[in-house]
Specification:
elongated; 322 residues; 9 helices; alpha/beta
Length: 322
């Protein structure tokens, strides 16, 4: 069910939520958190769909603050808030409140959402597109336990990593890190097997617009204390993280993903293996991040300590770093 509330206020939205619960039986009991999505007009539906899917694992209230962006057609200076409440089949296991905010009404997003937050429930803020320079100091970031950004959605993904490094506060995280979970798990499993030889060299390859490639190189450099090369390539077929090679005395371990969803693992003295290593969807990344509401200390170490260690050793075919 979708209820439209054109030119409305937070108080009217709250009353409408109460009425919907009383008349339709939709209840907020059991909601474990409030997810605030900050988007631009016309670009919010993909994020809402991901939140709806993730809500089946994490029942929550979703508040979408959608404001005018540089590419918004027919931008208006007239302050107005149009709201949309989605429950039932249109909202997964959540309540979705979409606030389409125009003109000066967008100047204080914190006041727009404060009256709609679930009482005594943690708040998570997510910027699926452009993110503020310092997420923790932004109006929505100040009220959030966790703050989720996506460097790959920025115009300059590699530059976005450096901004995230300088602005990091405990509670920040980025989907460029979340997308590495399967890669890190597989690499850790490989190194946990005999012959337990030290890694003497590391090479990571990926697309120039893949911040995950850089973060994986930084993490491996930190964990294995070995020289690392990070090759960032460009071109029409450059997409995401390609592969990792780990050199040891007994030979080279290679994990490469040449085909979507399938990676090839080559180890000295063992048969070649094809492994499932799919690209993680927005829903997968969001659900993963919502499983924990405490700060991701490992991400904090990689973004603040690992990236600076990597700066002097990264090689790039595109000149991203030298």
């Amino acid at each position: 069910m979708i209820v439209d509330l054109p030119d409305t206020t937070t108080a009217k939205i709250s009353k409408a939520l109460v009425r919907i619960r009383e008349e339709g039986g939709a209840v907020a009991l059991g909601r474990v958190l409030t997810l605030i999505i900050s988007s631009t007009l016309g670009h919010e539906e993909e994020a809402i769909a991901a939140a709806n899917d993730a809500s089946r694992e994490h029942p929550m209230r979703v508040i979408v603050v959608s404001t005018e962006g540089p590419d918004t057609p027919h931008a208006t200076s007239v302050p107005r808030v149009d709201a949309e409440i989605r429950v039932g089949g249109d909202a997964g296991a959540s309540e979705v409140i979409v606030l389409r905010v125009y003109g000066e009404a967008a100047s204080d997003p914190e006041s727009l959402v404060t009256g709609l937050l679930l009482p005594d429930a943690p708040v998570v803020a997510w910027w699926p597109g452009a993110a503020p320079a310092v997420p923790a100091d932004s109006p929505l970031g100040r009220i959030a336990y966790r703050r989720i950004t996506d460097a790959s959605a920025q115009p300059d993904p590699q530059g976005a990593l450096q901004r995230l490094r300088s602005s990091y506060r405990p509670g920040d995280t980025d989907f460029a890190w979340t997308r590495l979970t399967l890669w890190r798990t597989q690499l850790a499993a490989v190194l946990d097997q005999p012959p337990y030889e030290a890694v003497t060299a590391i090479n990571v390859t990926g697309a120039a617009d893949s911040p995950s490639t850089t973060l994986l190189a930084a993490w491996l450099h930190m964990q294995l204390k070995a020289p690392v090369g990070c090759e960032l390539t460009s071109g029409p077929h450059a997409n995401g993280l390609y592969g990792v090679s780990l050199t040891r005395t007994g030979g080279v371990i290679s994990l490469e993903r040449e085909n979507p969803g399938i990676a090839t693992l080559i180890q000295p003295g063992q048969p070649v293996q094809d492994l499932s290593l799919r690209r993680r969807s927005l829903r997968d990344c969001l659900a993963d991040e919502l499983r924990r509401l405490d700060p991701d200390d490992l991400y904090g170490e990689v973004i603040t300590r690992g990236l600076p260690l990597l700066e002097d050793v990264v090689n790039s075919e595109t000149g991203v770093r030298a």
